[in-house]
Amino acid sequence: MSKLFHSACKAARSLIASSSAPAPRAASSLLADGRNAALATLANLGRNSTLPAAYAHHLHTNASSHGYAWIAAIPAAAYMLQDQDVHAAEMERTFIAIKPDGVQRGLISEIVSRFERKGYKLVAIKLVVPSKQFAEKHYHDLKERPFFSGLCDFLSSGPVLAMVWEGEGVIKYGRKLIGATDPSKSEPGTIRGDLAVVVGRNIIHGSDGPETAKDEIALWFQPKELVSYTSNEEKWIYGVN
Ligand code: IDP
Ligand code: MG
After folding, report:
1. Residues in binding site
2. Rounded distance, CA 133 to CA 208, Å?
3. Is-catalytic flag, 60?
4. How far is the CA of 147 from the centre of ligand 1 (A)?
5. Does ligand 1 lie within 6 Å of residue 199's CB atom?
6. Domain annotation for the chain: domains and CATH numbers
């Protein structure tokens, strides 16, 4: 039920963003997903003049018999979509850092712009020089590797641009934007593929999964440094058809 509710919220947001709602699908798929529920809800709110009255009527006469009394909550959900915290809460976040080599080479704007242009949202950013102990915490899972000490020396050798980016699938796709660990094997078009040559100077770090993302964000940022806000572009970046 919460899945349906979630997708109804998304559909409602998309419909609010567009000036003309799409025509509804066949009545047989009524209530098959949250999108149709959201369409009917908006008809109820008088926002959608193109929805046939019979369609909305069908929804109402069937709602309680199918155990969909929760649908009454959707107008409230549509209203809540205006609340930036509600929206921010449903989005994935990842930790991205430009290492000292990337900062020194003047690649900050190039790298930030690749995440921005993709459609991800920057929710935290700061320039820091981490201590070696901090670098060792960050790379704790590599402590058995022969390059561990040199890697931590390097990360703590100068300014690092620490960031948190937010968006649907940002953890996995962020890694795609970054490219393979060894730049000699990274695809052209990726950050490391285009801008780096050797593994010891691969200019950028990105969390490799949901757990590491959570841990790394908590290591580098205090909760109050993470800024939840609604970007005006979101209604053009996200939507359902
Ligand atoms: P990742 O940065 O792509 O997640 P990891 O395997 O987590 O790659 O390694 C962390 C960092 O350690 C790499 O980004 C790279 O800077 C460094 N590193 C990885 N493998 C080697 C190596 O074989 N020699 C030297 N440094 C390495
Ligand atoms: Mg890693």
Report:
1. 99, 147, 175, 181, 192, 202
2. 21
3. no
4. 8
5. yes
6. 93-228 (3.30.70.141)
Point out the annotated binding site for ATP: 99, 147, 175, 181, 192, 202
* HEC profile of the chain: CHHHHHHHHHHHHHHHHCCCCCCCCCHHHCCCCHHHHHHHHHHHCCCCCCCCHHHHHHHHHHHCCCCCHHHHHHHHHHHHCCCHHHHHHCCCEEEEEECHHHHHCCCHHHHHHHHHHHCCEEEEEEEECCCHHHHHHHCHHHCCCCCHHHHHHHHCCCCEEEEEEECCCHHHHHHHHHCCCCCCCCCCCCHHHHHCCCHHHCCEEECCCHHHHHHHHHHHCCHHHCCCCCCCCHHHHCCCC
pLDDT tens column, 148-158: 999 999 999 99
The region that residue 179 occupies, defined by phi over 0 for left and psi between -120 and 50 for alpha, beta otherwise, is: left
Name the one residue in this structure whose structure tokens are 């060792």: 136
Predicted confidence (pLDDT) per residue in 149-189, tens digit: 999 999 999 999 999 999 999 999 999 999 999 999 999 99
* Rounded average pLDDT over 78-102: 72
Q: Which two three-digit tokens encode residue 92?
A: 């994935």
CA-based torsion, 177, 183, 189, 194: positive or negative: positive
CA distances from 97 to 2, 62, 72, 134 (A): 34, 52, 44, 14
Measure the CA–CA gap between 78 and 89, rounded to whole angstroms.
15
Q: How many residues are recorded in the chain?
A: 241
Q: What are the residues facing 166 on neighbouring strands?
A: 93, 121
Task: Tell which atom from ligand 1 comes closest to the C-alpha of 208.
Answer: 4
